[in-house]
Amino acid sequence: xxxxxELLAPGGDIDSIKAAIVAGADAVYCGxxxxxxxxxxxxxxxxxxxxxxxLAHKHKCQVFLTLNILVxxxxxxxxxxxxxxxxxxxxxxxxxxxxxxxxxxxxxxxxFKIHASTQLTTHNEGQMKFLxxxxxxxANLSRELNIHEIKxxxxxxxxxxxxxxxxxxxSYCISFSGLCYISSVQGGKSGNRGxxxxxxxxxxxxxxxxxxxxxxxxxxxxxxxxxELHDACVDSLKIEGxxxxxxxxxxxxxxxxxxLSNFYEGRGSTGDNSSLYKVFNRDFSNSFLKGDLHKEMFxxxxxxxxxxxxxKINSCPVDGDLxxxxxxxxxxxxxxxxxxxxxxxxxxxDKIPLQLIISGKSGTPxxxxxxxxxxxxxxxxxxxxxxxxxxSLDSPMIMKRLKAINDTEYFLENIDLxxxxxxxxxxxxxxxxxxxxxxxxxxxxREPIDPIKLPVLKRQNKERxxxxxxxxxxxxxxxxxxxxxxxxxxxxxxxxxxxxxAEFIDLFRKNEKLIPWFPSILIGADFEAAVEFLQKLxxxxxxxxxxxxxxxxHKSGIPWIAGPSLNIxxxxxxxxxxxxxxxxxxxxxxxxxxHQMYSIKIPDDFELYYSIYHPIELMTxxxxxxxxxxxxxxxxxxxxxxxxxxxxxxxTNLKNEKxxxxxxxxxxxxxxxxxxxxxxxxVTDFPFLFSGFLIDLRDIKTETKMGIDKLETINLxxxxxxxVLKLAExxxxxxxxxxxxxxxxxx
Length: 747
Hints:
By secondary structure, this protein is α/β, with parallel strands linked by helices. It folds into 3 domains: 6-172 and 219-272, Alpha-Beta Barrel (TIM Barrel), CATH 3.20.20; 352-442, no CATH class; 468-615 and 676-745, Aldolase class I (TIM Barrel, Alpha-Beta Barrel). Helix content is 31%, strand content 21%. An 8-stranded parallel barrel has the order 1-2-3-4-5-6-7-9, surrounded by 6 helices. An 8-stranded parallel barrel has the order 17-18-19-20-21-22-23-29. A 4-stranded mixed sheet has the order 13-12-11-15, with helices on one face. The longest helix has 23 residues, at 323-345. The protein is globular and about 90 Å long.
C-alpha cells in the first residue's frame, strides 16, 4: 500500500471551503478577515470558523488558519486576543510568516501546531533547523525548488520532526515569496501584509523582445509529477487559490483526489487533467519542479485561458472572437456549478444551540442542566446557594459569566431560570468554575486554556546614541575603502558561492576589516558552500539575510546580525533572535513606516540597525528575466548562467515608471525601483533607537545618480550622523532622484 499524502485545499470563503470538503480535501487552509496573506479573498469570521471546524472534522478534514503576515507592535495586543480565543477551538494548525509570531506561539501558546508559511521562503536545511528550534511542525517549501532539492530538504525536515508541503497547482510567483516588495513600493500595498496588487501581471510598454507582459508566468501544475513527489516523501500537496471561487476549488480538488486514488490503487499515474483547463488558468508549467527553467514558462497574456483551451479541443475558432466558445463553456459549466451548489448548500456550519436550565434554592447546590440537540448533561456547583437579601443571580449576570461559551462552536440560545429561587446567590468565581466545567464537557473532556497576558516589555533607556555608519559593497575594487574610512564595511557574498569559495575566503583573510554579508537565497550546494565559508573563515561577525546561515552562525558561536531581508518589524522578532539564536543585532525592515517604529522595544545588549540609503530591491527571481525583455541566445538557464551571466535592462509600466533588471555574476535576477531610497530624517526622528545606519554603495544601475565618489559620499553621511548642519541638503544635492515613501507610508 502506497504512503498517503495529504491533499491541502484553499478556502477563500465559506462556499469554497465547503466545496473543498465535498470534493475530498484532507485539509483546508483559510483566513479570518484580518491578519492573513489574502486580504482580497472574502475570508471568514471567527463565528464562521467554529462551524467550519465542526463540519470539516465531521468529514475527516483538517482546518489550518492563515495568520501569515508581518505584524507590527501596535497589533500584538489584538493578535494575542485572537490567539486566546483560538486556543480553545479545535483548529488543527496556524500558518505564520512573522518571526515575532513564531516566538509568541512557541513561548506562550504551546498547544498550537505551527506551520511555516511560504512567505518564509524555506529552501535550505539551516532554515529547517531554525524552524525546528521554533517548534514549527510543518513548512511550506519555496515554489522555486526542483524535485531533487525538495527530496533532500524533506529528508532534513523529517530528521527535525517537521513535515513538508509543496504547492502543486495554481499561480506561480515570479519572485521568491516574502522577498517581493514591488506592490509595496509602487502602490503601498505590501505582499507581506496580504495586499499584493500583482503588478507582475500588469501590462508594460512593449519590450525589445516584443512582449507586453514580461513578468507573467504560466500557472503551476505538478499533476504528472505525483510519483516523483511521492518518492520525495513530501507530506502535503498544496493547491493555491484563496481568491478563486467555489467551482474552481471543487474542480481542482476533485481532479487531484481522483488522481491520488488511482495512484494509490496502482492504476497508473498519468490521469486526466483536462478538467483543470476548464477553470481559471494561464496555461500550465511544471518547470520549477523539473529544474528546467526556460522561456516557455512565461506567457504574454495574464487572462484566463479556459475559453481558449475549450475552443481548441472543440474545434471552435481560436483566432479573434471567442464568444462562441465562451458561451458553450459557460453552458457546460453551469450544470456542474448547480450540482456543486446543491452539495455545498446541504452543509451546515451554523453554531449549535445550547439550552441552560438553571435551578436551585438557598442551602442547595446550583444545578445547571445543559441541553444540546444531541445530548444532555448536568453540572452542580461545588458550593451551596445563599440568600443574601441583596445581590441575586439573574439572566444578565449569568450571561456575562458564561458568554465565553459563545466563542465555541455552541451558542447560548436560552437560559431558563424558572427553577431558581428568587434572591439566591453564588460567588462569581463559582460561576466561572461552572463555565469551565461546561466547556470541558462540550470540548470532549479537554480542559479550557486560560487566556495569557504578555509581560510588559521594558523600554530602552532614552540616552542619545551616537550611531555608527556601515557601508555595503560587492566589488573587490571597493575593498580599499576599509583602509580609507572608519565606517564598517560589509561585503555582499553572491547567491552562488560554490565555484568561487576559495577566492572569497582568500579575499576576507587578506582584508580582515571586511564583514561578510550573506544573501537571502542560498539553495543546496550554495548553502553548503556558505556554511563551509563560515567554518573555514570563522569571521568575528557576519550579517545574514538568511535564517539558515544565522542558525549555523549561532551553532558555531559566530556573532551575527539579522539583515533587512528577514522582514523584521516588531519587538518580539528581536527577542526571538536574541533569546533563541544568540543574535547580536538586527536591521529593521525598510517596509516599516515611521509611525510603526515608535512602539519597538530593544532587548538588553542588542543593537538595532536601519538602511538609510540603498537601491530598492523589488524582487528576486530564480527565473531568467531577460527572455521576455531583451531576449537571450539561450532558451533556458544552464549551469553557467548564474555564475557567469552579467546583464542589465529595464521595463516601463503604463504609468511610465521604470523597473531596472540586474543580473550580476553569481547572483539571481533582481528588479530594482527606478529611484534609490534615501531617508535623512530618521537620524533625528529616533535619536534613542538605532546603533547604526547603513548606506548601500553597490554598483547597481537605477535612475539615481551620485555627483561625488564613494569615499566623499561616506564622509558626508558620517558628518551628517555627527550632527554637522546642512549636510542633509548637500546629500540631496549630490544624490538624486531619491524616495523615502516607504518610511512615510509603512505597511
